[in-house]
Design brief:
This protein has three helices and nine strands. It is an alpha+beta fold.
């Protein structure tokens, strides 16, 4: 069964500078796709898993979003909100709080700090990582900052947008990175 995808719309883009604690990604923006995936009633997470896997983001999981600040230095991450809603801090302590709800997808470039501030009791998130990446999870202070920045800069851009594939907005928005 192929997941129903609403018409492609440009995601919201947010840039987060290195704040000295959380490296973030000075070259690539965080992308928020509102209402990007139509959910199935029986298993709302399945549509996200199917879309992500179809576009080369097969290393997936189901859960929530950690309530502690963390980031990944060797991989990008996608979060699909399958059920419920949450308020999430992106970009570390000097970042931005965003509300996400069922159907939304957030693509975090490597290094982007994130943590859940509050969530509905029914929150279900499908997370995934691109096939061409490694995995790690760090908190500020757990890794030498300069080493984290160097590792983040070396992470390859994913081969496909996790929602829309090779013609998706991520490919265009991440193909000509800008530095803050």
């Amino acid at each position: 069964m192929k997941a129903a995808m609403p018409d492609q719309a440009a995601p919201q883009a947010y840039h987060f500078a290195d704040d000295g604690e959380t490296p973030n990604n000075p070259a690539l923006p965080l992308l928020v796709y509102r209402g990007a995936v139509a959910r199935a009633a029986a298993d709302p997470a399945a549509a996200f898993e199917e879309a992500f896997a179809r576009h080369g983001w097969r290393r997936s999981w189901r859960n929530g979003i950690h309530d502690f600040l963390h980031f990944h230095t060797r991989t990008h991450e996608v979060l699909g909100i399958a059920r419920g809603r949450a308020r999430v801090e992106f970009g570390g302590g000097k970042g931005r709080e965003l509300d996400v709800a069922a159907g939304d997808v957030v693509v975090l470039p490597a290094g982007t700090g994130h943590r859940c501030l509050s969530a509905s009791a029914d929150l279900l998130v499908v997370g995934a990582y691109p096939d061409n990446s490694g995995f790690d999870q760090k908190r500020p202070g757990q890794i030498d900052h300069a080493s984290a920045v160097a590792a983040i800069a070396a992470v390859a851009v994913p081969r496909e947008d996790p929602v829309y594939g090779s013609d998706g907005p991520l490919k265009k928005m991440w193909s000509q990175p800008t530095r803050d």
